[in-house]
Design goal:
By secondary structure, the chain is mainly beta. It has one domain (3-94): Domain of unknown function (DUF427) (Metal Binding Protein, Guanine Nucleotide Exchange Factor, Chain A). Helices cover 0% and strands 51% of the residues. It has no helices and 9 strands. It has strands at residues 3-7, 10-15, 19-21, 24-26, 37-46, 50-59, 62-70, 85-87, 92-94. The strands form 3 sheets. Strands 5-6-7-8 form a 4-stranded antiparallel β-sheet, with no helix packed on it. A hairpin with a 2-residue loop joins strand 3 and strand 4. The radius of gyration is 13 Å and the shape is globular. The two termini are 16 Å apart. 28% of the residues are buried. It holds the Pfam family NTP_transf_9. InterPro entries: DUF427 (IPR007361), DUF427_sf (IPR038694). This is DUF427 domain-containing protein.
């Protein structure tokens, strides 16, 4: 069973390979079902990872603003999560038996 991100009844990401940083599971870009993701204008800055960009998630007409984030140009210390996507705001991450890479 893959590790999955689920929101509003839909699997929005699924993978057997992921990264864990500060307790958050980061999904590779290829694991993301982009039909549910809309780019956001929101950006935040982490002192060691760099500037994060956000996605708003939309499933069956329900919107979860800025519920996913990623680092398109991370600082060197976070290069392993470049473009990988993490979740919050009620998105459930179910870890399968796969190991973090």
């Amino acid at each position: 069973m893959a590790t999955k991100a689920i929101w509003n009844g839909a699997t929005i990401a699924a993978t057997d390979v992921y990264e864990v940083v500060e307790g958050n599971v980061y999904f590779p870009p290829t694991a993301i079902d982009m039909q549910y993701f809309k780019p956001s204008n929101t950006h935040t800055t982490c002192g060691w990872k760099g500037v994060a960009s956000y996605y708003t998630i939309e499933v069956d007409g329900k919107v979860n603003k800025d519920a996913a984030w990623f680092y398109p140009t991370p600082k060197p210390a976070a290069a392993n999560v470049k473009d990988y996507v993490a979740f919050w705001k009620g998105v459930k991450v179910e870890k399968g038996p796969a190991q973090a890479k």
